[in-house]
What does this fold into?
Amino acid sequence: MYDKRHIMDSLKDLNERHLKFVTDRNWQQHQSPKNLSMALTAEVGELIEHFQWLTVEESWKVNGKKKEAVAEEMADVLIYLTRMAGELDIDLVAAAHEKCERNERKYPVEEFQDGYKRPHEHKDKDKY
Amino acid sequence: MYDKRHIMDSLKDLNERHLKFVTDRNWQQHQSPKNLSMALTAEVGELIEHFQWLTVEESWKVNGKKKEAVAEEMADVLIYLTRMAGELDIDLVAAAHEKCERNERKYPVEEFQDGYKRPHEHKDKDKY
Amino acid sequence: MYDKRHIMDSLKDLNERHLKFVTDRNWQQHQSPKNLSMALTAEVGELIEHFQWLTVEESWKVNGKKKEAVAEEMADVLIYLTRMAGELDIDLVAAAHEKCERNERKYPVEEFQDGYKRPHEHKDKDKY
Amino acid sequence: MYDKRHIMDSLKDLNERHLKFVTDRNWQQHQSPKNLSMALTAEVGELIEHFQWLTVEESWKVNGKKKEAVAEEMADVLIYLTRMAGELDIDLVAAAHEKCERNERKYPVEEFQDGYKRPHEHKDKDKY
It folds into this structure.
């Protein structure tokens, strides 16, 4: 089990700052989880737009103005994601560690020793 | 300016754990920023699906099994977002604070005192 | 079975026009299904942005400049969707009719006589 | 100008069939443009998932079961897109032709004779 004592520190600061920004402008009433899931999607759309015509190799070399723009879109995603977690009272980092645990069990290391197999090429004997 | 000393702690743990999971399975080669932006989008799609037919009010009351499923999708978004930040060497929390600063300037508190105006109803005199 | 004789007419015109636009600019090389799925996502992100802070009721009353902007984003989605179908040699309208058939069987009319039940409130006895 | 006489035929059939399916189940009340934009996004998320770990080259060679699954997701996108156009009284094909016209003017053929330049590498002198 992940030790929860240390989680939600840098994200906690961010959450608090952003929540103050939102409540100062009376926006919390508009920030239902439904609406926030839409805002999150719109930001992800802006993020993916930066990569749509790039080759895989180019995508690793993004820099300068483009990298700044990418960082800004990723920031927006993080802001809306933590905002949404706040409205739903979900501990995002704890949930992420729980997901890591499930993934660690689901994709046993031994099956991926050949060096190229991707997640979707994994045969789950049961269902999945 | 945001003091960077305290950032990237809970997220740092998560990043390290997930990166180990990925490298143990030889998956880093597939995790270009381009591909990760797609994986991120797919997870956001799964998240929004939970809210598409709900009313705004119902979306605030999500609980039980549905809340767990929502938390899992949000965890996936966080995992891919931090993974992508890692590949691009972007400090996600610092970028989020910089974005908060820009937003705080862009949407002056005084303009939103009436109690209902939403972000898109804000008239930016210049460009925007 | 859906009679395929009449399908792909208005969409056929659109496809041909857009494909000429693309090939005239040497862009087909960049328009892999992978890249097109990203472009499609980016356009859907722009579309959803118009609706994120609207109430459900407001979303039905979109008009004027906003309606024009919405129509343009929807047009972009259709253009990339048909372009992607072209690259993959998929008959989009036939696929849609096949999906309609599956949906008609999957959600029996009798189960939705009560007047409010939504798709996700449907109990599929078997799998689903 | 595009001649509107011939548009909305194959899509018209599809629209009518799907609208009947929806009204027979009392679902139109849930299908606001807001909700439909979310459903559209969720389907695009399922579509992009099929391509996220593929190379660009693999994405062109999708076939068999995977191609069928891709076709089904694309069908879902088309169904929700036309459904949304119906709720908003937008002529989707006409809007797409108008967009084609704007694109044809915006990206002059002469600028793309070198054989590799992509849309985002186009310098628009004015705004954009």
Summary: DSSP finds five helices and no strands in chain C. Chain C has a mean pLDDT of 89.
